[in-house]
Amino acid sequence: MPRYRRTTRQRGWGAGAGAGRGTAGEQALGLEEVPAPLFGEVPNQERQRAWQASRESKLQPLPSCEACTPPSPEEVQSWAQSFDKLMHSPTGRSVFRAFLRTEYSEENMLFWLACEELKAEANQHVVDEKARLIYEDYVSILSPKEVSLDSRVREGINRKMQEPSPHTFDDAQLQIYTLMHRDSYPRFLTSPAYRSLLLQGAPQSSSEA
């Protein structure tokens, strides 16, 4: 089977000084940092299939809510005590991820989970590959799942991608964690999904005969 190299053009990473300078319109869109294509003439459809297969095999998401152990009433209530308790609960993460999907921001949780997986990896070759996948999926401005990161964090990632480590995305992961905490978590606590779980665990009043 032929081997394909990555085709996604990525902001800053691998570009030399002054590389990728575009037009004024491109600069206004933040595209001036995108380096020129780095790869050969492989058909677009074949490149996409290879990229998709590699990404799906390396970055497996958490199981859906249906595959998680049903939470106890106490666990559900604890999710409202702090965002940390929600994120430390596998079931809580799955429920919260489903909520983020309804807000079209599931990529924040997926990125956070991918960073957790990367930090647990000891094999450098696997680290290199997973770091590239994370970059292409969540950091590249060309990705439909790009997460919102400030310029300082992006520049730090671009430097670290020269020699990826399990902690290449630590600053970015913290920034997205903080974003979910401040922005999505308060809405989650008032969402129908969470309120329904609370009601399921509430004591049922006995009806009169």
How would you explain this protein's 3D organization?
It is built from 10 helices and no strands. The chain is elongated. It has a domain at 67-201: Orthogonal Bundle (Regulator of G-protein Signalling 4, domain 2), CATH 1.10.167. Helix 5 (90-102) packs antiparallel against helix 6 and helix 6 runs antiparallel to helix 7. 55% of the residues lie in helices and 0% in strands. Residues 1-12, 14-43, 53-66 and 205-209 have low confidence and may be disordered. It is mostly helical and 209 residues long.
Large-scale geometry: elongated
Helical percentage: 55-70%
Can you tell me the residue ranges where pLDDT is under 50 for at least 5 consecutive residues?
1-12, 14-43, 53-66, 205-209
CATH homolog superfamily of the domain at 67-201? Regulator of G-protein Signalling 4, domain 2
Count of distinct strands: 0
How far apart the termini lie comes to: 72 Å
- Tell me the structural class: mainly alpha
Order of helical and strand elements:
HHHHHHHHHH
**What is the typical, i.e. mean, pLDDT?**
77
Strand content: under 5%
CATH architecture of the domain at 67-201: Orthogonal Bundle
CATH topology of the domain at 67-201: Regulator of G-protein Signalling 4, domain 2
Gyration radius (Cα, Å) is: 21 Å
Please identify the top-level CATH class of the domain at 67-201: Mainly Alpha
For the biggest sheet, the summary is: none
SS element count, helices: 10
Domain RGS: 82-198
Region (Disordered): 1-29
Keywords: Signal transduction inhibitor
InterPro entries: RGS (IPR016137), RGS_sf (IPR036305), RGS_subdom1/3 (IPR024066), RGS_subdomain_2 (IPR044926)
